[in-house]
Design goal:
The structure holds 2 protein chains of 2 kinds. Chain A contains 13 helices and 2 strands. By secondary structure, chain A is mainly alpha-helical. A two-stranded antiparallel ribbon of chain A has the order 1-2. Chain B is an alpha+beta fold. Chain B has one domain: Cytochrome-c3 Hydrogenase, chain B. Helices cover 49% and strands 13% of the residues of chain B. In chain B, strands 6, 7, 8 and 9 form a 4-stranded antiparallel beta sheet that branches. In chain B, strands 1-2-3 form a 3-stranded antiparallel beta sheet. Chain B is globular. The chains are: A mainly alpha, B alpha+beta.
Chain lengths: 359, 367
């Protein structure tokens, strides 16, 4: 994980540097100690976000197991800790103890890096989400003009990790998983981007903060219902959970791109998937349901409630549905989601023209 | 440049239902050629059966199709009884019928659950297993075992149905149809399931007959051929039941056929419960000391309708206490041959759907 923190800190340091007004450098020269300060600052903040994300993942995995067991007439984990709540901790320790197997002919560097790439968007995405205010402290790690663009750019990183992991494993099933991941990626990302674009048109800003503030009266899900549907399906596909778990597809491709992964590397992929589920539900709650803005009071409580609802919906889709076929998914992406998102773009442009400041 | 990739599905693969290996040639996601490779679970059941006394071969029959062991026993027992002209009391025959139908339900439930898993549906599996567990408890009560029963004997059954067992069966047949409805609705109300299975793994009637395909696959391809109706054995001509037939020959039709068969099995069990006569449950002439001295002469074959298709054991006796030849006609073996024509031209994802729709059990394919 050291490598992971290192990469994250550098990425975040660059991010901070970019949004630090560059003209100061021309005016006053660059203070020598500033880089170190930024670096330390970045490390602390990344660790903080990482800790929060991990906590959410631990809770999410526990809820998933118990909820799934409940639906399936089972008991679920009940041995470790109160009501089996420490099961995941035990699993993590077990995975750490496992031998780190790398296939003989694998591309070693790519194979090692891929799980971290899958985990990256969880942290990067969480950095720019406004979680609301606690008295005067705003719970948002980074705030600059283009946070929404940054969020979208961060979220499209994870399929890259799947493709790299699959291609570098030197395994036919993993190869097929990687190819599917790439195909699926193109299938849903274009409609997703277009529906995000219509949000930008509606709010008149690239900043997530502005988008949240624009939803004070009406959440965007009402004017943007088509865009919401597209974005929601894209989010399910992005997490690769059923019905769109094509890159993994347990029953056909053994476990797709992650076939050769074992031990803690697999653990990181697993936690990355759950972390992404948390991120996806937070993003949906923020972009379409106003995030921390809600009736009666504006608080971090609202975003917690909203994203919890979406997490449960994602889990339900995982538990209840079967898997679609690749061609069916691509059909859906190109023939239904893309036209829908373009239609939504037109509608939201019209709304922006005629109602302008109403939203 | 070589465009075709050859991939081994199995013998260790999460959805090959045992140890099936399919050599698949893939062009992208499309299956160009698929050849099943079998023999990984070969245990020499036929030869082992020829090495012991007639009643002793029964345990090998149990281990053929281990999810429907009583159906396998029945095929052998009927054949041997025909060979030796053994008379079986009526009560024993009715009990056999009831047990075989219950086992058919259990076998189809195993199929339904694993079929759901192959389609990526996790939840129906547990519902199916819950229902199957109730059947297994009934078997545990009546036969003493949960999986491999060794229950049918030449001239009857080894133990009578207990009153508690009858109660359990009554409770099961009264509650099962509703629960089956529930499980069925998980599949049938799912748009994704219909999309995945309709028109997939098609098998035309000519091909089905040509390959010797029997059982639910044949009925899903459009031929009304059920040995319980067409060549009745036991007392199947004395009970009312329907034979479900669908003509599409795809995975979805097979699903419908098997679901309907479970309903019909419940119907049969209900009728058996009404008609079950009093009397002996085995023929006293062939009690245990006699059992080992039984000699067979000639040859016999009684085809029976197992959950997978036509099952029969061809027994030749040479006048001694040991069968001269035991040849097993196993349905999955014949059904599995058709897998390569069922798969050609479809996608990889259809492979798991199609293979699971055949419902192969490898104890029986490899024998």
């Amino acid at each position: 994980m050291n490598l992971f923190f290192f990469i994250m800190s550098i990425l975040y340091g660059i991010l901070k540097f970019l949004h630090w007004p560059l003209w100061n450098w021309y005016l006053y020269g660059y203070p020598a100690g500033l880089w170190i300060m930024y670096f330390v600052d970045a490390v602390i903040e990344v660790i903080l976000v990482f800790a929060v994300a991990m906590l959410v993942v631990v809770i999410l995995v526990y809820v998933f197991r118990k909820y799934m067991a409940d639906i399936q007439n089972r008991i679920g984990p009940n041995r470790l800790g109160p009501w089996g709540s420490l099961q995941l901790i035990a699993d993590v320790f077990k995975l750490i103890q496992k031998q780190d197997i790398i296939p003989k002919n694998a591309d070693r560097i790519a194979f090692r890096v891929a799980p971290y790439i899958i985990f990256t968007p969880v942290i990067l995405g969480m950095l720019v989400i406004p979680f609301g205010n606690v008295s005067i402290l705003q719970l948002m790690v980074v705030n600059f003009k283009y946070t929404l663009l940054f969020l979208v750019a961060a979220m499209v990183i994870s399929p890259l990790g799947e493709v790299i992991g699959g291609l570098s494993s030197h395994n036919k099933f993993a190869l097929y998983g990687a190819l599917r991941s790439a195909a699926q990626d193109i299938g849903y990302e274009v409609p997703m981007m277009i529906s995000v674009l219509s949000l930008i048109i509606l709010a008149g800003s690239y900043s997530i903060n502005d988008i949240v503030n624009a939803q004070k009266n009406i959440p965007f899900v009402i004017p943007e219902i088509l865009g919401f549907i597209v974005f929601f399906l894209a989010m399910i596909a992005k997490q690769s959970i059923p019905p769109f778990d094509l890159p993994e597809s347990g029953s056909e491709l053994v476990s797709g791109f992650s076939t050769e992964y074992s031990g803690m590397r697999y653990g990181i992929i697993y936690m990355g998937n759950f972390g992404f589920m948390a991120l996806a539900s937070v993003v949906v709650a923020t972009l379409y349901f106003g995030g921390p803005v809600g009736p009666f009071f504006n608080s971090v409580l609202w975003i917690a409630i909203k994203s919890a609802v979406f997490m449960i919906i994602f889990l339900l889709s995982w538990i209840a549905l079967g898997r679609v076929r690749v061609d069916q998914f691509l059909n859906m992406g190109w023939k239904y989601l893309l036209p829908l998102s373009i239609l939504n773009l037109v509608i939201s442009s019209l709304i922006a023209i005629y109602f302008g400041g109403a939203f | 440049m070589e465009k075709v990739v050859e991939v081994n599905f199995g013998p260790q693969h999460p959805s090959t239902h045992g140890v099936l290996r399919i050599k698949v040639k893939l062009d992208g996601e499309i299956i160009v050629d698929a050849q099943p490779v079998i023999g990984y679970l070969h245990r020499n059941a036929e030869k082992l059966s020829e090495m012991g006394l007639y009643p002793k071969a029964l345990i090998y029959m149990d281990r053929l199709d281990y999810v429907a062991a009583l159906n396998m026993e029945l095929g052998y027992i009927l054949s041997v009884e025909k060979l030796m002209d053994v008379e079986t009391p009526e009560r024993a025959q009715w009990i056999r019928m009831m047990m075989v139908e219950l086992n058919r339900i259990a076998s189809h439930l195993v199929w339904l659950g694993t079929h759901g898993l192959d389609m990526g549906m996790l939840t129906p599996f547990f519902y199916c297993w819950r229902e199957r567990e109730r059947v297994l408890r009934i078997f545990d009560e009546i036969t003493g075992s949960r999986l491999l029963y060794n229950y049918f004997a030449i001239g009857g059954v080894y133990s009578d149905v207990t009153p508690k067992g009858l109660e359990m069966i009554k409770e099961f047949v009264n509650t099962f149809p509703d629960r089956l409805e529930e499980i069925q609705s998980i599949f049938q109300k799912s748009y994704i399931y219909a999309k995945r299975t309709k028109g997939v793994g098609k098998l035309s009637l000519e091909d089905a007959i040509g390959y010797g395909v029997t059982g639910p696959l044949l009925r899903a391809s459009g031929l009304k051929w059920d040995l319980r109706k067409n060549q009745p054995y036991l007392f199947y001509d004395k009970v009312n039941f329907e034979v479900p037939v669908y003509s599409n020959g795809d995975v979805y039709s097979r699903f419908l056929v098997r679901i309907e068969e479970m309903r019909q099995s419940v119907r049969i069990v209900k009728q058996v419960l009404e008609k079950l006569p009093d009397g002996e449950f085995y023929n006293k002439k062939y009690a245990k000391p006699m059992l080992v001295r039984m000699k067979g002469n000639g040859e016999s074959y009684v085809p029976t309708e197992s959950p997978k298709g036509e099952f029969g054991v061809y027994v030749i006796g040479d006048g001694s206490t040991i069968p001269y030849r035991v040849r097993i006609r196993s349905p999955s073996f014949a059904n599995l041959q058709a897998v390569s024509i069922m798969l050609k031209g479809y996608k990889i994802a259809d492979l798991t759907a199609t293979v699971s729709s055949i419902d192969p059990v490898f104890g029986e394919v490899d024998r």
